[in-house]
Structures are given as structure tokens and as C-alpha cells.
Amino acid sequence: MGALQKSLKSRHITMISIGGVIGTGLFVGTGKNILSTGPAAVVSYAIACLLIVLIMQMVGEMASGEIAMGEKSNGSAELGSFASYAGKYIGPWAGFTVGWLYWASWVFIVGLEAALIGGILNGWFPFIPVWAGGVGITLLMTIINIYSVKSFGEFEYWLSFVKVTAIIVFLVVGTAMILGIWPNYEPQGLGILTAYGGFAPNGIVPILTAIVFVIFSICGAEVAAIAAAESENPAKNIVTAIRNVVFRLGLFFVGSVAIMVMILPWNDMDNLAAPYANILSMAGLPIAAQIIQVVIFVSLISVLNSALYTSSRMLLEMSRQGDAPKIFSQIKNKRGAPVPAIIGSTVVAYICAMLYFVSPDVIFYFLGNCVGGLMIAVYIFIAISQIRFRKHYNQVSGKPLAIKMWAFPYLSYVTIALLAVVYLCQMLIESLRAQFYLSTGVLVGSIVLFFLMKKLSSPVSEKSENIEENLTPESN
């Protein structure tokens, strides 16, 4: 059995962390949020980005702390696995729940992106069936992931580079338009923020509910902590990735929304249907709409690639923890790729993609309505794990943490409270009400399943598990 290879470089980790949050939610969903919230959408994006930044800080603290404790005990630290953190600092049931929910969410995202990619390819080339385009791109990403983690990192780097470049161009052009230094455009000034019914024309509630949509759009930055385990210098790369995400999340997301509401009236349905393309067209840039379509296509492939990588590593870690079949812990590829875990995740992703064509309004709808809520639930588990981790770390290690959660423990508790409010806000949105009940049902069901499986397990296995649990705190 081989081992994971530490062949990812710092630039790979940084771009993976940024690229993981830049998808169609930014390029397409932003306009919808502005239409429902008004110029105050800037506030929604700022709060959502702050929550993601806080979660990233917590993940970075635990990952760097695990490295420090691993070095102290001459052992190997558990890097980037939210399931292992939850299992260690909350309980085995939490590790089981977080691992399977996080894995299932990303596998579903692979299937969703594959279906969307197939649709775009079919629109460009009608002779390619939708299912064939989706399956073909997924197969290509599977091959890249199986070949080596370095090939995944390099491919994801350039995909993310395209997305980041497009956003930077938009930010530069948009800023020039607002400042009045772009030719053939007359800026409307700050008055546009209140000229069409006020800064928050629909009241305060849409600002809060929009946070739910934004959180769903930008989750994924935490993937960097998983990827850091396969990098040349995990401790350094985790710190670098976290710091880069803090700055760039605000720049790309909050900056983009600020430019949109300063250029387009918040109720301009036509232009906000495709805000990036339409604003660049207003600036007189040729074929802007076509270029953005290509960027959206690249974004879909990038998210699919990252989702496949993330789901395979989570399945690998769960197998090592005993929460998934042992076959998925095998690494037989000489380049260090966990082939069984990659293939296992891909197969389930294919099933999800097929459900899009077989039962889009029932089964696929059910799965889709679970993902957003489950990601928020996972974040709450991460926050609780971080609080318990810090208390444990202070007891067993005298080494300073490379990354520390700010204003601990107060800000950690505030983060949990805010995430809980966001989760409950789903009940206030008619289109998300089903998502709230479905995701809550799946969450509770997974916890019940753990205890049911534990109860049905053999007395020998149960005794062995209890001994291991009792020894864990002392070994750390």
C-alpha cells in the first residue's frame, strides 16, 4: 500500500482555496440576490464572506495545531479532515455524521456540475447529447485525479487562474467606470444606491435571507486545508492559504457586488440576469457575453474537479477512521492517488447525474435541497470542534499556534450563533423551506444511523471501540 504524495505547491493550495468558491453562484446567482435585496445585497455578501473567513480561521487553527501536536509526538497529524476533528473533539457520532454529510454533499455537486456542463456543451454543439457531455467531462476529471495529485493541482490552478483573471478584469473595468475614467460611460454616482426605492427597498428580512443563498454560493474555501496535507510544506501552506482567502473573498465577492449596484439599478432585471457580461458590454468590450460564457463553463469544470478531489479525500479519511469500507483507504497508485476512493466517489456522482435526467423533479430535487443546509450544519460542527480543540491544545501543547481564532472563545460562539440563525432563516424563504426540512431530516437520520449501527455491531467490535475512545484523549 502506498502513501499520499506531498507534491502540491504553495501556488496550487492558494489557487485551490480561491477557485473552490468561485463558481456559477458568483457569475449567475449574484444578480438574483441583488434583485431580491437591492443595493443592500452588499451587506449580505459582507456578512456571508465574514462567516466563511471565520470558518477558515477555525479550520486553519485546527489543521496547524494538529501538525504541531503530530510533530511533538513524532506522529503524523490528521490534516484537513473535518470528520476526524469532529470525531476526536465532539464524539465518534459527530465524526461519522460530518464525514458522510460532507462527502455526500460534494459527490452530489459533482453530479450537478456534470449535468450543467452537459447542457452547455449541448447548447454549443447540439450533436453532443447532454448526458454524453457530462459523463465525458467527469471521466476526464477522474483520469486527471487518478493520475496524480500534482496533475489535479496543476489543472485546477489554471482553471482557477482563468476565473480569477476574469474577475480581476471586471473589477478593474467596473472601478474605472464608477470613477468616470472609462471612456464612453457616464457614472451615476452614489445616488444610484437610493434612487430606486432606497438602499434596502424590500426591508431588512431579505438582507438576512440573502445570506443563506450567498453561503451556499461561496462554500468550498475550506478545501485548502484538505489539500494542504498533500503539499510540500503543510504548516506553511495552510497559513498562506487562509490569509489569502481572507483578503480575496472580500475583494472578489463584496467588490463585485459593490460595482454592480453602483452601475446597474437594483431592479434592472434584464442586465442583472447576466451582470458580469452586461456590464463589460456597457464598457464597450467586444464579445464580452461570449467570454463570460466560456468562463462560466470553465468554472463548472473547476468546481467539478475540486468536488471530485474533496469527496475522494474525505472518503479516504473516513475509511481510515473506520467509518467507511476499508477498501477506500488503499493507495496502490505509485504516484500516491487514492484510486479506490476516487472511483467510488465518481461512481456515486454518475448515479446523481443520471438522476438529473431520470427524476429531476423528485429524487434529484430532494438531493439538491439537502446540500445547502447540510453544508451549514457541517460548518457548525467545525466551529464546535474548534472550541473543544483549543481547550485540548492548551492542555497538551506549549507551542504557539501558527493560526489562532480571533477573540477566542467569544467569536467562536458568535459564529455558531450566526450559522444557526442562517440555518433557521431557511424557514423564512418559501423556496428554501423544503431544503430546511429535508436537510434537517437527513442530519438527524445520519446521527440515528450511527447509533443504530453501533448497537447492531458485535460485542467484540463495540468493546474494542470503547477502549480506543477511552485512550484517545491521553494519546493526544
Describe this structure in words.
- The longest helix has 34 residues, at 288-321.
- It contains 19 helices and no strands.
- Residues 471-476 have low confidence and may be disordered.
- It is mainly alpha-helical and 476 residues long.
Q: Report, as a whole number of angstroms, the end-to-end distance.
A: 26 Å
**Global outline:** globular
Beta-strand content estimate? under 5%
The biggest beta sheet is recorded as:
none
Number of helical elements:
19
Tell me, rounded to a whole number, the average pLDDT. 84
Class by SSE composition: mainly alpha
Number of strands: 0
As a percent range, the share of helical residues equals over 70%
As residue ranges, the low-confidence spans are: 471-476
SSE order: HHHHHHHHHHHHHHHHHHH
Tell me the radius of gyration.
22 Å
List the helices and strands and how they pair.
Layout: H1 10-19, H2 24-27, H3 29-37, H4 41-72, H5 82-89, H6 92-124, H7 130-147, H8 149-179, H9 205-218, H10 223-227, H11 234-263, H12 269-272, H13 275-282, H14 288-321, H15 339-358, H16 363-396, H17 410-425, H18 430-456, H19 459-475
Helix pairs in contact: 1-8, 1-11, 3-9, 4-9, 4-11, 4-16, 4-17, 5-6, 5-16, 6-7, 6-14, 6-15, 6-16, 6-18, 7-8, 7-14, 7-15, 8-11, 8-14, 9-16, 13-14, 14-15, 16-17, 16-18
